[in-house]
Task: inverse folding
């Protein structure tokens, strides 16, 4: 197998795990983040 300089799958897993840990500790943070994303991209929901 070829040695990769950049592993996107590993990076996404690390991001997912980090966010999961943050949101598990403080569920309100997830709600605030999602609301900010909805405002930024003008998503109605």
Result:
């Amino acid at each position: 197998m070829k040695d990769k300089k950049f592993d996107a799958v590993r990076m996404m897993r690390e991001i997912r795990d980090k966010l999961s840990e943050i949101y598990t500790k403080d569920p309100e943070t997830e709600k605030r983040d999602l609301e900010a994303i909805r405002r930024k991209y003008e998503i109605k929901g």
